[in-house]
Amino acid sequence: MELTTTTDEDLLIISPQGRLDAVTAPLFDRQVEERLPAQATRVLVNCSGLDYISSAGLRSVLALAKKLQNRGGRVVLSDLHGPVREVFEMAGLYSMLKIYDTEAAARADG
């Protein structure tokens, strides 16, 4: 798994590539922690490059969402497709998280 981050004003965009599973989730957690500014309250996880996510990956995403919620912020997701989308649907996370079809739609929600 590779992770790229970009910042657009006060929005941190996290783009994981490859697999987010039990092996790579700790790396995801560590890299997000290193790149997440202490004052950040808006994070977008763009899943367009994510091929697979396991329950360990879901836990990482939910832990990030909880951390931001405790700061008065939120995490939104975009570009879920194929098996990644199915896992989020089966886990019932569409009702818990804001998920958008595209990054542009997620950004527009502000």
Characterization of this structure:
There is one protein chain. The chain is 39% helix and 31% strand. It has 110 residues and is of the alpha/beta class. It has a single domain (2-109), classed as STAS domain (Transcription Regulator spoIIAA, 2-Layer Sandwich), CATH 3.30.750. Helix 1 packs parallel to helix 2 (55-70). The model has no long low-confidence stretch (mean pLDDT 95).
Write the layout of secondary structure elements.
Elements: E1 2-8, E2 11-20, H1 25-35, E3 42-46, E4 50-53, H2 55-70, E5 74-78, H3 82-90, E6 98-100, H4 103-109
Parallel strand pairs: 2-3, 2-4, 3-5, 5-6
Antiparallel strand pairs: 1-2
Domain STAS: 1-110
Family: Belongs to the anti-sigma-factor antagonist family.
InterPro entries: Anti-sigma_ant (IPR003658), STAS_dom (IPR002645), STAS_dom_sf (IPR036513)
pLDDT < 50 runs, ≥5 residues:
none
Task: Sketch the major β-sheet.
Answer: 6 strands, mixed
Between the first and last Cα atoms, what is the distance in angstroms?
28 Å
Overall shape: globular
Number of E strands: 6
Q: Could you tell me the radius of gyration in angstroms?
A: 13 Å
Number of domains: 1
CATH topology: Transcription Regulator spoIIAA
Fraction in beta strands: 25-35%
Helical run tally: 4
CATH level 1 class label: Alpha Beta
Helix share bin:
25-40%
Mean pLDDT: 95
Look at the structure and name the CATH superfamily: STAS domain
What series of H and E elements makes up the topology?
Answer: EEHEEHEHEH
Helix/strand-derived class? alpha/beta
CATH architecture descriptor: 2-Layer Sandwich
